[in-house]
Amino acid sequence: MGMKVWYNGSVVEEPRIPITCHALHYGTGVFEGIRCYKLTNGKRGIFRLSDHIKRLFLSAKVLKMDIKFAESEIREACKIVIKENGLSDAYIRPIVFYNFGRIGLNVLKENVDVAVFAIEFPKYLEEEVRVKISSYRRMNHLFTNPEAKISGHYFNSVLATLEAKEFGYDEALMLDSEGNIAEGPGENIFFIKGETLITPPSGSILQGITRDTVLKFAKDLGFRTIIRNVSVHELECFDEAFFTGTAAEITPIKEINSIKYATSLSKKIQKYYQKIVRGEIEKYEKWIEAVE
Ligand SMILES: Cc1ncc(COP(=O)(O)O)c(C=O)c1O
After folding, report:
1. What is the domain range of residue 106?
2. Residues at CB less than 6 angstroms from ligand 1
């Protein structure tokens, strides 16, 4: 039996997308990546669902899409695909895209399809990763709106990933157009120096929801946080570094180019994050939406 997908308001098995689909040719889709967890109390919960759906609608606004559904309907669709496919620990992918219009770059604002599917998705990256600074720069506001999660943006991330793998690394790290550290191909980055967590500002990064989660819980673990530009020359001065992302969760970085890092504090942060997403920390239960 195929995967059950929520497509424009109905649950269907593996919808067929026409070869003329605009998003296939020009990357004119917007999407989200969301995780559902089996909670410690045995129920299923989706982490920061409403924040993800809000970002989806913001991304759609950048591409001037008329979405025929309300945010609440898409949130409900995320729960439906979890239930219909009998999943608990899973990755949910809502995607909104320009479907058939015409060959050409103009689009019809109302020609927008919405699909939501979910898959089992255990680990995205290795336990600890070796990272290579990419020769591809992360795009900035002069090219696009880097804060929108637009399908077409990801060719940049794919190139960076291919390059890192070719050189035998696990993941890439992209610089912004000024040469400061920006982010990974699908992750934000934090550095640890003493009791301080440092992460690059908005401008050339996707403002990650996991990044926001870490910024909000850091003080529970005794860290203060600073958002500022980080230059490549500082990399040698940091104690540790880690990636954040819905897919990557918290992933300790053991090496950037040839600079080696300890991972013990990153692992402590990783463990705390796992407790939060599995509903073990009461004050953060507000971030979990139950799948009834
Ligand atoms: C380029 C990029 N940066 C950062 C992130 C992390 O964002 P989030 O924590 O919202 O998943 C992602 C993943 O969505 C991404 O694709």
Report:
1. 4-120
2. 33, 157, 183, 186-188, 206, 208-211, 244-246
